[in-house]
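ok trying this again, last paste got cut off
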Amino acid sequence: MKKTIESREDIELLVKIFYEKVFADSEIGYFFTEVAKVNPETHFPKITDFWEGILFQNPVYRGNPMHAHIQLNEKEALKPEHFERWLSIFHATVEEMFEGERAEKAKQSAISIATLIQVKIHQRKFPIMT
C-alpha cells in the first residue's frame, strides 16, 4: 500500500524522484539541465516550498513561477508537448509513490499550473485586444 502525503519530507522525496526522472528524460530533460540549468541544491527547496503551499496551505513559497517560465520560454519555446510530457512524468511519479487526497490534489494542481503557464505564455505572444 502506498502512503499518503503527510509532511514536507514527503514532498521533498516527491520532488527529488520527479526531478531525477525529468533530468534524465530525452524529451524535456534538456530544459532543466541545459536551458534553465537547474541547480538541485537551490531549486529543490523552492519547489518543495511551492508544493507545500499548495498541498498544506502553508504559504512558505517566495517566488514568481510565472515569470520564471516566461523567461524560460524566451530562451527556448515551451510547446504543448513539453507540458504534456512534464505532466505525464509528474502524474506517474505521484501515482508510484502516493495515494489519497493530497496525491490527487497534487495531480490536479499540476494540470492547472501547466494550463495557466501555457495560457500566459501565449498571451504574451498574442496580446488580448481591448
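PB: full thing came through this time. The chain has one domain: 8-125.
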